[in-house]
Each structure stands twice: as structure tokens, then as C-alpha cells.
Specification:
six-stranded antiparallel beta sheet, 31% helix, 30% strand, DNA-binding, 10 strands
Amino acid sequence: MMEQTRSALLRLAQELEGRSVGKFPPERELAARLGTSRTTVRSALDALEREGLVHRVKGRAGGAFLTSVHADAPTPENARSLCASRRLSRNLNTVMGVPQMLQEQGFQDGTRVLSARLERPSPRAAQILGVSPDRDVISLLRLRFADGDTLSLERMYLGDPGCRDLLRTHMDSVYEALRCKFGIDISATDESIELAEVSSSVSTLLGQPMPAPVLKLERIGYDQHERPVEYSVDLFRADRTRLSVSTRPGHRV
């Protein structure tokens, strides 16, 4: 487990270096994001310090700092390195949950469930799902991590009343839970993507300075019977996400 955590922190170090960010998040936060203990995180940071990649400072203003990043790095250079940082490749041709995407691309995925409950849907969600605005549906709000750093914030509504027991299951991969436990296979989606600004509270959750833009992805998920069962809005950090799409002659996307 320590070696897996060390590998995740090493990838995070490369990501932070690419953005000229010199300090790791606190140990407690890293442990929560990576799903491990503070002792394991501390041991992994100790290993990186022995390798000369990190130096530790004690005290209130202390923490784990990258030896390769200097606080006075010039701003234009920061912008160039931002483009070169490692990003999640979001393939628009595939129907896949975020955890599976991350795992297939060598990231260690993490999820923090901010809320999971039954509540009235938004007007847009009610219209898409074909439900009454006065009827409760499943509402999930989740923060996603890649190698311990924030990636996206997701609001998901599920309109099928038969899957309400989902609230009693693990919330990391909803698509997998829907398929395995409720026989609902999200097999097709309609997605739209635009650049957006967010509120200060969302910016804080994503670890983004104001007014950094995000990629706003609106998604309608259809089950194997072509019924709209999911309506989601994802906010992806633009500095950590690359969109890709493939087309072939005679292939409609």
C-alpha cells in the first residue's frame, strides 16, 4: 500500500510541478483523497524526501514542498508548463464512468461524496428525466480526485424509482452499481460541453483560483431500453482535462 501511495504522490508531484505549485496538500487531506492512512502518506512522503524530491517543514506554515518548484517562478513560464501537465483524456466517443477512465489511464482515482439523498430535481433535470418537479429523485453531489488532486465536481440526478436503494451502496462508481445491482446499463449518452465560470465556493472545492474557467459538461444518460435515466452536470478542471473525439468515414458520433 505504501508503494502504491508513493507512486500516486510521485505522479501528483509531477502534476504540481507542471503548474508551478510547490506545496503538497496536507497529509490528512491526501490520506482522505487516496483512501489510505496518514501513516502511509507520511511514509510515502518520507521516501520522496530521501530521494530529494521533497523537503519537509515543521510548524503551522510548514508541510511537504517540492524541491524543484520555486515561489518566484515567472508567470509566463507557469502558463507554458500548465499546457504540458498530465491530464485526464476525456474521450467523447465512449460511455464510461470517471473511475474507469482514471484507472485505464494510470491515475489513482478517488471520490468524496458531498451529498447523497432524495430531493426535488432541478427544472432542467425534471424535464429531461420526464418526472414531475414535485417528485423526489436520487441526487448525488461528488468531488472527484486523480492521484490525490481535485479533478471534477459532479451533480447527478437519477429518475428511475427502482434504484433508490443505490443510496445504500458504495458511491464511487454509480454506473457499475446500476449495472450490477439494478440491471440498468447506461449504454448511450448525449453530452454538451462549454467553458464556464464558477462561484467562489465551487472554485474552492476544485482547488482553483478565481476566476479560473472550468469545462462544464451536461450529460443525459440512456439505459439499454433508450430511456433517459440520468441527468448530470460535471465541472472539470480545464487544466487537468483534455477532450478527445474520433471520427471515421460513414461513422456517426
